[in-house]
Amino acid sequence: MGSDSNQAQARINALLDENSFVELQSLVTSRSTDFNLNAKKEPSDGVIIGHGLVDGTLVFVFSQNADVLGGTIGEMHAKKILSLYDMALKVGAPVIGFIDCGGVRLQESFDALEALGSVIERAADVKGVIPQLMCVAGNCGGGLSVLPSLADFTFMVDGASLYINSPDTITGNDCDTSSAKFQFEEAGTVDCVGSLSEVVASMRQVISMIPNDIVEASDDLNRAAEGLDSKLTDAALVATELADSRQFIELKAGFAKEMVTGLMKLDGVTIGVVGNREVDGEAYLSAAGCEKAADFVDLCDMYEIPVLSITNVAAFKSCKCQERRLPRALSQMTQRFVDASVPKLNLITKQAYGTPYVLMNSKALGADLVYAFDSTSVGAMEASKAAKILADNGTDAAAIEKDYASLQDSALTAAAHGHIDRIVSMADARKYIIAGFEMFF
What torsion, rounded to 10 degrees, do the Cα atoms 140, 189, 127, 260 define? Predict the structure, then answer.
């Protein structure tokens, strides 16, 4: 990815409110004189740091400059980033990084390796204490790729490279494994991709949701949800309709599309959404989807963001790969739902069958409130499948299916047994979910 001498600064300017950036430590230079580095003592030592505002919210930013020694990390480069973390930690503000780096500075050898390790250690140490947003804006390879993975939210500019091993060193690799497309769709390491302006717009949206300040709602608390009956197969569409001003930010949208994760506000309160999306008409849990959900619920719990699960699930994805990976992934998601101490609400939209439903934030797993629409099907198994098991030879399977559907396969029966707290109309869903969360504040 090409760069000019002002690109590191231009990225900061694109993100922050106009004229709000205050640069710090601009005169820092490398201390190493090995390999004739003293002949090229450039200010900033390859990274610009400072603070500024995003829609009035204070943030701390570092932006690596690939034109200074390739943006490589050396001792002073790392110390500048560490000092930025120290300041952000003192005031509880987010840290935002634009990564464009040629790796560790070979001229500084072990000192550079230790410098990289110190930055990674700090990012891991403050995880869950102050929000971290990382944007891969240029090159990010090898051990440095741990940094965007540690971040709470990760962004990537089209044309940038993110990799452990360079794609041309991987035997039989027929695609660019370092590309934004691969990282977004195949690896699931990136929340949003696009041009710099698109990515920066997404970053500003996310920052507007965190820290989790309760703001004056810009939408009517009692606004009726519209057209939900045509949106039940996709939790992202349901969340968008329920959200304040219909603003829902889907995260990691390119990866494991059968599981939806994202952020919205309800009556001014930031809410994390975990839900199901039908793929080719199938409503299932997959290993990748459960891992995605587990990580997101963990993120919400760390930052005390209440969780709304939007449930529409009927089966586990079935194949040899899933048999290998699903048990561990299901256990991770289950553990996160059970351990999360934030308010947890579950809205069942279309269907909820068997243990896949139980593991999607059900009452049994500790959901504080469970709502469902009156048209929702809830049960141990779909009536048609149950009838085949229950029907003896000569017994009318069709009659059993009808009886089973009316007695065991309905939200009303589940509510009568105490597994669902309230049957809500689609129009009133927003109002009741807001009221449910407000009980906990």
Answer: 160
CA distance 67 to 409: 64
What is residue 329's predicted lDDT score, i.e. its pLDDT? 96
The encoded tokens of residue 353 equal 């069958």
Give the count of beta carbons closer than 10 Å to the beta carbon of residue 28: 18
DSSP code for 104: B
Alpha-carbon distance of 213 to 269, in angstroms, equals 7
Q: What is the pLDDT of residues 104-135, one digit of tens each?
A: 544 445 566 787 888 899 999 999 999 999 99
Q: CA distances (Å), 245 to each of 193, 207, 212, 214, 220, in order?
A: 24, 17, 17, 15, 9
CA atoms within 13 A of residue 234's CA, in its CB half-sphere: 13
Place of tokens 């999306």: 277
C-alpha–C-alpha distance, residues 287 and 406, integer Å: 33
Predicted TM-score (pTM) of the model is 0.87
Q: How many Cα atoms sit within 13 Å of 212 on the Cβ side?
A: 21
Query: Which one, of 129, 135, 132, 69, lies nearest residue 104 by Cα?
Result: 69
**Greatest CA separation found in the chain?**
93
Question: Given the structure tokens 């309905």, which residue do they identify?
Answer: 410
pLDDT tens column, 7-47: 999 999 999 999 999 998 765 555 554 544 554 555 555 78
Please tell me the distance from the alpha carbon of residue 371 to that of residue 221, in angstroms, as a whole number: 18
CA separation for the pair 112, 395 (Å, rounded): 76
Phi-psi region of 70 (alpha: psi -120 to 50; beta: other; left: phi over 0): left
Check: CB of residue 360 under 8 Å from CB of residue 346: yes
pLDDT digits (tens, 9 = 90+) for 137-146: 998 887 788 9
In terms of Cβ atoms closer than 10 Å to its own Cβ (0-12, 13-18, 19+), residue 132 is buried
